[in-house]
Amino acid sequence: MRGARAALVLFCASAFLPGCATRGSINRTRADIATLGRQLEELRAAQERLTLEVGRIATDLRLSLAQLTGLRPEVAQSTVAVERLRARLDATETTVARLQSTVERVEPEPPHAATPTQTPTSPPTPPAASLPSPDSDRTPPGEAAPHVDPVARAYAAALEQYQKREYGQAVLDFLDFIAKYPKHPLANNAQYWIGEAYYVQRDYRQATLEFRRVLDADPRGTKVPDALLKEGLCSLNLHQPGRAYELWRRILREYPDSEAARKAGSFLSARGVSSPR
Fold first, then answer.
1. pTM for the full model?
2. Computed over its alpha carbons, how large is the radius of gyration of the chain?
3. Out of 50, 240, 256, 273, which could bridge 268 as a Cys pair, Cβ 3.0 to 4.6 Å?
């Protein structure tokens, strides 16, 4: 009797263990796929952060280059510093390209032991950002069509990158536009969209600096009321409501007929804040 029981136990164990081993390998494969998916998302996020950082560095570099260009001939030795700054920018762009290549290579493989009903899970799609309408940009009267005017074409190409949510590339393109055409009427608009690129990425501190540059570059520019409105929203997100209310009241005082003034009035009313008389 004991021998029969032992044989039965051995038979059950031999039938049960392979199934356990198969399920265990499937679970390990699934865990590996999940890990690869998380790593891919982290790499993509790191790439976007690094691309935006390139935009910040490029802003500082171009300001430094502009200052160096205006120096007198007797300080020509500063050319060495200019070359170092350019080398730093080139090295940063190379890093971005290398990271992009890494992201494209890292893709999770489907499970080999999965059942036919299982399909690989695709990464979650990030929430769509609220894009300002491109119709808010007006081409100055008399300006040639974008396909004829290289200035308008360069601006449209940068704006297209923004609309495609390629915010890091959009920042770089708008910076190039400002550096090439600093006196063009669209340069003020380009600076505004740099601020928007940081704003939609929730980098409110950098966005605040970029929106302020809209006013510094041209206090009478067409994008000044919109820049003040968005700087107020940045202040609100940075837990500085008093600063936000001050900026919105300024819009109502100085630009009462603008669309930004209508929005500023709505923001103030929604928070029970009185408008300026």
1. 0.51
2. 28
3. 273
